[in-house]
Batch of 3 targets.
Target 1
Amino acid sequence: MSLRNVIITLIAAGTAIGLIMFGDLYGGREEQTVHSQGNVKYLIGVSHPNLNGPWQIQMNKEIKKEISHYKDTRVIFTDAVQNDAQQVRDIHSLMNYGIDLLIVSVDNANTLTPVISEVYKKIPVIVLGRGVKGYDYTLYIGFDNQLNGKMAAKEAISLLGNKRGKIIQVEGNKDSLQAEERTKGFEETIKRESSHTIIRTINGNWMRDKAEDELKLLLKSGMAPDLIYAQNDAMALGAYRALQDFKIKGVRIIGSDGLNEENGGLRLVKKGTIDATYITPTGGIKAVQYAMDILHKVPGLPKKIILRDHKVTKNNVDTYLRSFNNDVTSSSKNKHKRIKLGFAQVGSESEWRLANTDSIVSAAKKSGIDLLLRNADYSQKKQIDIIRKFIKQHVDVIAFSPKTEEGWEGILKEAKEAGIPVILSDREVDVEDQTLWTSFLGSDFVEEGRRAGKWLSSHFHSAKPVHIIELEGTVNSAPAVDRKQGFNEIIKQNPNFSLLHSYAGDFTMNKGKKLMEKALAEYGKEINVVYAHNDDMALGAIEAIEEYGLKPGQDIVIISIDATKKAFNSLSVGKMNFTVECSPLLGPQLMKAVKDLENGIEIPQRIITSEETFDQKQAKKMLYQRAY
Ligand code: GYE
């Protein structure tokens, strides 16, 4: 019998002995869920960095509770007890048990990223809560830690008022991306938006006692903070205890996690121990739900799920306590009423957009959702009018693809006042109040730009200068702004690369051709590369290059984004060199989000789609499989 079957048998037989034995071998602590007998189809491994922290314990509870709904699945937990090397060993041992999928919560991204990349080559990996570097995983579920730090800074500024405050920051594990990003968000916002000073940053390693001890040393040295920002509630409580020890009163304290348990953030705010906390969902339940979708090979799953965190202060803590204590699950409004979704499509400017519209229409039909889809013909004013009409029609949910990032506060406030949630599809908006929209569903455009730049760097090795023309998408649109940023981030690292000129396009083939004609007239054979923000403009550029008498894909390298079928045709015949996928097939995920919303289930703040890249060889092989 294989080791995997031994494990499954031991679990099914309800004995923990076998696993504790294994646990002894590896030094970590392990436990397993015991279910009734039954045919076990899947074995999931869950690797925790440390099951001492309250947030991690909550995550574990959620995973256990959710996994109990799946009778054909078993799960093995490991706890590295805050030892990074041990967590690597734990992951190896889980692999030796023959697990089908790994859920891993990461503290030290530097130590864990390599082993997770290795595992990802063999089985699906869900990274939960705290991130790893790069994209070597199937799905990341967490929240926006930089935004968490930014929100804490804004609360600190509000609590300190006009006086120049002295702040002590208590960080989590110094090697964790989560701590790094929270610190970045907090420090940048304090510096940019206030005259307060962060007089010291100490490391509490997520633990209450360590935070207490470190802070006592500072207070003993005579340091007198006006506010303490701790990156979790456990360390915030440690700070409180240190202040109490020195009989120091009036210092404001901000934490994060917002758990509803003894010494959890909700209770600490209720008691007035700390001034604010942020409910940061652990993602344990979603991790199990998506794990089962992955194991059942459900198509179109996202790459990243960013959960929304919520600020809790004395003004709203009772609301959250009531909702937790009533254990309100999903308060579905009316299960039988068909949902009405208003979608303000930005236009029909590209092949990508046509495929996007098709995906939304077909997914709505399959989901039994009444779709009102109106086309704004690439006019922001029309889009706003269409959304205003949806509000008058009392649709249940509004979704739209904002043409540009600016100018949406007004209409979004109208939707919010009407109590209609808004989902951003494929493009984001730039508004101060993040509660004006419920969720963003789309791609990581900055990463798309980086991928284009990275391929270019791998393609050009010689020290010869490489002159680049950039055909940008619509000015101030999220894809154009971010793809430019990501691409520049990479090419500026190579002294041989130079950007001859960037032309503002609008994602259309016609504009791509006209801009390329202009570039050829100005630079001619000096041009070595064209970087187009989408395939349609790249295809227009290819026509212009051929009419100019040069060979696209040979005389001039063509790289682009979207990965449409027409681009695959050009790649296959050597007229294009590389394209980065940006999936338009958002319909199924959009309808899932709409249904969850209507069933009272909180949907993630950001749902980032999973995408690949394609060179000529790959495109030739996959041409006939392209869905769009
Ligand atoms: O790349 C382009 C479309 O918003 C991601 O808009 C979308 C972009 C896409 O016109 O082809």
Target 2
Amino acid sequence: MALLPIRIFGDPVLRERAAPVTAFDDPLRRLADDMLETLRAARGGALAANQVGVLRRLFVWESATADVTGEPWSGAYVNPEIVETSEETQEGDEGCLSFPGLFYPTTRPLRARVRAYDVYGEPLERVGEGYLARLFLHEIDHLNGILFIDHLARHDRKEAMRRIRAGELEHPPEELDVEGPAA
Ligand code: NI
């Protein structure tokens, strides 16, 4: 296993659309393992392949609080698709490992149903609610080159861009020691 460098906003790979995974093989599983190790080291909630410079459709996630239904609380989702979202929305601060130290209120659907494959090519389906819905939507956005700042209210986005231009991503303030909405 290996830690992979996380790409920071400004890197063009974060604006690219990732291509579907076609081979469920050992290199894919090694990539997923490395991404999970990288995620844990960064103390985040999820990590998309774009964020480590790989334009393939997969993300890994892990949560200490999502296991309220006895379902797995971490995973590697390959070729994921959102197949349904609730009309009901949620408000909450969202962050991203590619924007260290930046957290802004982001509106998302309250629930999201995801279909994907595991790293062995077995289909899976999962309904995320609350934090987990936010996480799934954020990661699948990444695979389409969409970033959480794209969802912000205009004044928050302006402030975020001002802070980025001022160099805050390179010198983030001390991060809060909470389970990361950062994904
Ligand atoms: Ni992110």
Target 3
Amino acid sequence: MTDRLTEYRRKRDPRRTPEPVPAEAVAPSGNDDTFVVQEHHARALHWDFRLERNGVLVSWAVPKGLPPDPADNHLAVHTEDHPLDYANFSGAIPAGEYGGGSVSIWDSGHYELEKWTDREVKVVLHGHRVEGRFALIHTKGKNWIMHRMDGPARPDWVPPPQVISPMLAVLSELPPPAQQAQWAFETKWDGARAIVFVDGGRARIMSRNDRDVTASYPELRALAESLGTTQAVLDGEIVAFGTNGLPSFSRLQRRMHVTNPAEARRLAASDPVVYVIFDLLHLDGRPTLELSYTQRRKRLESLDLNGDSWQTPRNFMGSGAELLRASREQGLEGILAKRLESRYRPGRRSPDWRKIKNIRTQEVVVAGWRPGAGRRAGTIGSLLLGIPDRAGLRYVGSVGTGFTQSILDDLLQRLTRSERKTSPFAEELPRADSRDARWVTPRLVGEVAFAEWTPDGRLRHPSWRGLRPDKAPSDVVRESCGVVRES
Ligand code: MN
């Protein structure tokens, strides 16, 4: 009889690993009815699914864990048989050894066998966490798929959505003091909005305009791994902090365009980001959009998501003015007021969320540029800015400050690529502003800080803050702090 643990022993040195390594072929024992699922934080997180059979644990590595839903089959990679003792193993396998990382028992119990062939294994699991019928079906080589056969883990199980557009806030002022008890207040973080979908220990990061930006932020991989098999959809802001401890939009700029994995990893070390989490949109098969802000926050806080690269900052009750003053003193962008009773409205700019800003900013579409003179000869002197409205692109003025040399170089390259002969504006520009203008197809979205709107609809004292690759020209709206209409 061949020793079924030869492969297992070949991969391990008993002097180097705390895993059980039986010295010689073990005699069959047990009742062939034990199963165990081990959560294994190795180089890549996976769950090891093991079934006792003929004296060993027949094993598969399942990268996303046991499927909670029959509609969602998971890959299971067949691995070497393990000794029966392994069913009780948890602990740390030293780095550098085979499977280096930590192992914990995710679930264990007994199973009933329905079918076992080379092509298909059908079992009913009776564990502490898992109850149900599963099939493993051989596809090719070491690859199998794992399928949940009887309904989802819970009858009311709802799979998470593929995309959710974030809810937006109306630019406004603090709610009247008499109403502030019905609101919560949060710090406004100056970064890029992102919805993070966590499933099977993997994160998918979606920007505001539904672009998959997962590759740009490798540091959030650990957030997903920390959640294990918990399925969650999170709403928050990706923020890069400057050396002064304040959010730095210009530092974040270095990260936003990068998709090359090696470069993204290098930048994650030199210009790290933090995902600041403030809402929970889905949790373990349950949508939470219909819940009130208060209930969503309670569930979010129970997840205790606080790590090196992600934080869930606290919110404040009944003290909007204090938080606003503190945010101003600390040089932060502003605060948000969120109505406690409000549900989450995807993609809507709702008066249930108000943003109150210390620094006024405005998104703009770059429609052209004027050459510089003197120190700026040969490059951009100023950018001509527009905001779309029903009539077309409306001129809102030009910006000539806030640039560094490398920003100018980058902009000049982008704008040269999209040059065109005619003005993209819906109106005639003042001659003084457009004499030497170079027009471009209005594709680039940027952001400026400014003092106020002039009576004729121009930005007063605008200063360039950076490009907004997470936004499209059609997302850009003129934000004015007007009367909040209650709806
Ligand atoms: Mn493993």
